Amino acid sequence: MLISRVGIIGAGPAGAAAALQLNQLGIDCVVVDKAVFPRDKICGDGLSGKVITCLNRIDPEIAIRLQEAPFKLNSWGVSFVSPNRQELDIGYRPDYNGKDAAHKKSPIGYVCKRLDFDNFLVEEMKRCAHIRLLEGVSVEQYTLESDGYLISGTGGFQLKCEILIVANGAHSSFTKDIAKIRMEPKYYAAGIRAYYKNVTGTNADNFIELHFIKKMLPGYFWIFPLPNGEANVGVGMLSDAVRRKKVNLKNELQDIIDKDPIIKERFKNATLIGSVEGYGLPLGGKQRAISGERYLLTGDAAFLIDPFTGEGIGNALYTGRIAANQAAKALEQKDFSAAALSAYDAEVYRVMGPELRISHRLQKLVKYAWLFNLLVKISIRNKQVKELLSCMFYEVDLRKKLAKPSFYIKLLLNR
Ligand SMILES: Cc1cc2nc3c(=O)[nH]c(=O)nc-3n(C[C@H](O)[C@H](O)[C@H](O)COP(=O)(O)OP(=O)(O)OC[C@H]3O[C@@H](n4cnc5c(N)ncnc54)[C@H](O)[C@@H]3O)c2cc1C
Fold first, then answer.
1. How far is the CA of 275 from the centre of ligand 1 (A)?
2. How do the domains of the chain map onto residue ranges?
3. Largest Cα–Cα distance of the chain, in whole Å?
4. Which atom of ligand 1 is nearest to the CA of 32?
5. What are the tens digits of pLDDT across the range 32-68?
6. pTM of the model
7. Beta carbon of 46 within 6 Å of any ligand 1 atom
8. Which uninterrupted H or E stretch holds 35?
9. DSSP characters for 92-117?
10. 305 Cβ inside 6 Å of ligand 1
């Protein structure tokens, strides 16, 4: 049996961030993943500015190595395409000007296959003296004992740890069986992803594209450009709507590619690489108990994906780092009680709660196609509104404004 002060289940972004932060603090941990890396993860592959910010906080050297990595594409913004097919391009930086080379030096977004990004994090873990990584071991049982958690899994694996960081993703059995967090269709989305080669018409500055096609609302169809002429293409939709409308997402994706008058032209010479795959997105926007005696839930296992944008990698990294700091405190104070660890919940929701709640409200508004059309129409013509929307990627207060009906009334009056 292995013994470690901290055990981490899952070596995706949440588990890796927790381990890398613990390493910085000089605390030994064992990380267990059922996969052998490099492994795929069904995802849009869009990395927001949060990713580099968080890695920089853990260790600036890691952030530099990611910035220099050849396997990703730099992206400078997002194109929102409204249901009536108007396109609104918003740079990640409010002062973005596509013609100005100075802005191109510092992108804040990337598109990068998870096969490569997650393997990058695994390689970072392998450099660390305080991290022991076990691949190809699936954790199947968790037993709370008086002096720690005993976890066991395939191949006779057993680990005893004082505190457990749960980072095993959207289908975590720990989240369901022990933390008792259940899937709720209003706070869960389903996503389908495919890789294509030779999709035409992508933006010269590699903007990611979100197409709010009427029948998919409040979900969207996406095209995210990747290196080597490839693109990540997919659809995502709230599970509540999938059930209500009896939608088959794989069929919807194919239908858009084959029949949508604008999209089908762009896919005329495109070829599918590999298979079309789907996975769940546990959404934030509602506060849940994400810790308990001797455990902390992180990333998707804690239901923290942004309900409006579908972004979860940045939040997974953030919670991994916060969990590591909380684990360090618990080890120092020798207090692993649920009451002591609830400080973790407070910190996660202090950092992410406002943004997630606002995004939940925005997601509800987006189901109105006319409102979306109007907002895009006004914004295309109005430089100030464009700058305002750009700030949305940084400022929670601004997202708050966007989620209020008064914002749209003012916009209408000032147009
Ligand atoms: C279709 C789709 C598109 C998305 N697009 C984006 C996007 O463009 N940008 C973005 O930021 N987010 C996106 N997301 C969300 C993002 O993929 C997740 O939020 C992110 O992967 C969460 O990281 P994590 O570390 O919590 O979990 P994961 O990345 O799922 O990692 C969990 C790890 O735990 C391991 N594991 C699972 N069970 C066990 C077990 N029993 N024992 C041992 N190991 C185990 C797995 O092998 C895995 O390596 C998308 C999600 C989907 C489904």
1. 18
2. 2-66+112-183+284-362, 78-106+184-282, 368-413
3. 68
4. 43
5. 999 999 999 999 999 988 899 899 999 999 999 999 9
6. 0.93
7. yes
8. none
9. SSTT--TT-HHHHT--SEEE--HHHH
10. yes
